[in-house]
Specification:
heterodimer, A: 312 residues, mainly alpha, Tetracycline Repressor, domain 2, 15 helices, B: 64 residues, 52% helix, rod-shaped
């Protein structure tokens, strides 16, 4: 008599994922940034929104972001397998099949767009659909492997969530929403290029045309400084709109001064200096860039809270 | 090995099934909560049965 359990045991290692593997496909760390920025966009927008509708909107904006992450992991499995940082992701590690990743990404995209439209308005849903399309098709399938500007243009996908949150609450796009978009959009290149400077071998081995590979590390350092200089006025401009207040303005002045100093330090260094201290400055600026974005949006939230409490 | 014996494979699938079940329950709860929120805030709604659809009702003619 055939022992059926023997066959199932041998197939268990491949394609038989735990629930957590499907969660990992949604890139939970990226989702946390999406949730936070979308929440700020929604809360600082004028007018009031029912808490249950707000919760639903944020949840499905986050799931839409997660869906694009799953589509990214489906398409990029070959590249992820080569890079140390991504080799343990569910698809290249063999725990989830690429078909499952594709299916999860497509279904979650459809559900999240439909639910956001039903919960809030169809303009917000259309923006979410465009964001998923932009990240999965324009960035993942096209730009990422084609041009060193992949990070610059692809950064738009990560910049849409606060705008979607704003549109979910108001039904239209305004200057404040565009500036919140601009803040993340211009922040993305220096953030990722700082990472690329000290994760150099990964992108090179995966044949991803990162700026460090195509134009050299000197040029990358220069571009980090240029984008940080352009970023500062956008961040400060947002401080003079009705959604911001003194807390945001003070935070923007301090944070941009520190970021500019960090970018200046990166620009002044060469590879010999960087290798001597293990890329300490590049790592410090990369870590700070995470706090930079979190604190800007956190300050917007504090100002909105102060306005709501009648302090301002 | 008897088929009744629990294997790591069964544990993995059980965890996955519980996760999917919880997601479905959460989704149902969200749809319910969203419906309650929409109704209580008086969003414009039209049913497709048992209720006259205002948008399809011809305008009343002026009384003679």
């Amino acid at each position: 008599m055939t022992d059926l359990t023997t066959n199932t045991t041998s197939q268990a290692a491949e394609g038989d994922a735990r629930f957590g593997d499907y969660v990992a496909l949604l890139k939970p760390r990226v989702m946390s940034l999406v949730v936070f920025t979308a929440l700020v966009g929604l809360l600082v927008a004028p007018g009031s929104i029912n808490p249950m509708i707000a919760f639903t909107a944020i949840l499905f904006i986050a799931l839409g972001g997660g869906a694009s992450g799953a589509l990214n992991m489906w398409y990029d499995a070959d590249v992820d397998a080569v890079m140390r940082r991504t080799a343990k992701r569910p698809v290249p590690a063999g725990r989830v099949t690429s078909g499952e990743a594709l299916s999860l990404g497509l279904w979650l995209s459809a559900i999240s767009v439909a639910m956001l439209g039903l919960a809030t308005n169809w303009m917000a849903a259309a923006l979410l659909a465009f964001t998923i399309f932009f990240y999965a098709v324009i960035y993942t399938m096209w730009l990422k492997r084609a041009t060193p500007q992949n990070i610059v243009i692809g950064g738009a996908a990560g910049a849409f969530p606060p705008m979607i949150g704003w549109v979910a609450a108001t039904g239209s796009i305004s200057l404040e929403a565009v500036l919140m978009f601009g803040l993340i959009f211009i922040w993305t290149p220096p953030h990722f290029w700082a990472l690329a400077l000290f994760m150099k071998s990964d992108y090179h081995e995966a044949k991803i045309p990162m700026l460090t590979v195509t134009h050299g590390r000197r040029e990358t350092r220069r571009q980090i400084l240029i984008y940080t200089v352009v970023l500062a006025p956008v961040a400060l401009w947002l401080g003079f709109t009705p959604v911001a207040g003194p807390v945001y303005l003070a935070a923007a002045v301090v944070l941009n001064a520190i970021f500019l100093k960090g970018a200046w330090d990166i620009w002044r260094r060469d590879e010999v200096m960087a290798e001597a201290d293990g890329y300490a400055v590049e790592k410090r600026v990369f870590r700070f860039s995470l706090y930079y974005l979190f604190l800007h949006f956190g300050a917007l939230l504090v100002d909105a809270g102060l306005r709501g409490a009648g302090v301002m | 090995m008897p088929i009744t014996q629990t294997h790591d494979l069964h544990k993995r699938r059980f965890g996955r099934n519980v996760g999917v079940a919880l997601c479905l329950v959460a989704f149902a709860a969200i749809v319910f909560g969203l419906s309650v929120a929409k109704i209580t805030q008086g969003a414009s709604m039209e049913a497709f049965d048992h209720t006259p659809r205002v948008s399809l009702t011809p305008p009343m003619e002026e009384s003679q």
